Amino acid sequence: MKTILSRRKALQGLGATGAAMLLDPFAAAATNVPAMLINRKIPSTGEKLPVVGLGSWQQFDVGTSKEDRSELRDVLSKMNELGGKVIDASPMYGRAEQVIGDLTSELKLNDQFFFATKVWTSGRQAGIDQMNDSLKKMKRSKLDLMQIHNLLDWETHLKTLKDWKAQGKIRYIGITHYTDSAHSKLEQIVKSKAVDFVQFNYSIRSRNAETSLLNVAKDNNVAVLINEPFEQGALFRAVKGKQLPDWASEYDIKTWAQFFLKYIVSHEAVTCVIPGTSDVKHLADNLGAAAGKLPDSNARKMMVKFVEAL
C-alpha cells in the first residue's frame, strides 16, 4: 500500500489562514454536525448504520502512552457523541485493534460501536488463532463484522466464518480488497450470496466499481463498505487552493471532504464509507457528509465533471 498523504499534510504549505480555510474550511463550516445522521440498512438483517464511519489504517497504529493515544481517544469520544458507529480495523494495521479495544473500553463505549475487523493470514488454524486474538485485543466476546482481508485464502476462511456466525462469535461475514483488479472476483463471491458485506475502493476519480460491482452488491442484498475515499490523500492535493463550486451548498456540502464523501454515499448501493483520521476536526467534518441533502444523479455528474476539469 502507498503512503497516505493526509488531509493535515495537504494543508501544509498553504501559508495564510485564509488559504487553509479555502482547502478545508472546518472552523467556519463543519462545527455543527446534526445529531441525526443518514442511515442505511444492512440488507441481510435490516439493521441500520450511519453512512460514514471510521477507518484505522496507520492512524491507530500508535504506542501505549497517554500522549500517543490522546487524540485518538478524543476522536472516538466525539464519534460516539455525533452518532457515528462503524470502526474498521485489521491485524494488518499494526496495533490498531488493541488501541481501539483499549480506548473504547476506557471510555466505556466498547458496546456502542459497530466493530469490523479482518482475518489476514493463510490456513484454517492460523485464521482461527488470529481471529481469537482480534477478539481479545478489541475486548469483545463477539465481533460485529469479520472480513477476509484482500481475499487472502478466502475459501478456507469463509468456511470458518460461517461456523463462527452459527456459533454466535460474529454477526456478519465480509470480504475486502482495495484495488480495481479485484472487483471481478469480489463480484463472483457476492453473487454466491455467501457474505453479508463487501468492502472495496471507490472514489469520485476512481469509479471502476460503478461499472458493475456496486449494482451487483445491491442486487444480491450485500452491504457495501467503501475504502480509499480520498485516494490516500491525493484528492486533497488535487483541490489544493481550489474553491468549492457554488452549487455544492445546495447539497449541504461545506468542505472538500464532504464533497468527496457525499459523492460516494449518494450511490444507493453504499452502506458506509470509512475514511481514516486521527483528528477530531476531520472526524466531525467527515460525519458532516452523513447529514443533510445528498446529491442526485444530475449533481453527481456535475461533481465528476468539476473534479475532472481540475
Automatic annotation (TrEMBL):
Q: In what residue span(s) does the NADP-dependent oxidoreductase domain sit?
A: 52-299
Q: Which UniProt keywords apply?
A: Signal
Gene3D superfamilies per the UniProt record, alphabetical: NADP-dependent oxidoreductase domain
Signal sequence annotation: 1-29
InterPro entries in the record, alphabetically? NAD(P)_OxRdtase_dom_sf (IPR036812), NADP_OxRdtase_dom (IPR023210), TAT_signal (IPR006311)
Per its record, how is this protein called by name? NADP-dependent oxidoreductase domain-containing protein
Organism phylogeny:
Bacteria, Pseudomonadati, Bacteroidota, Cytophagia, Cytophagales
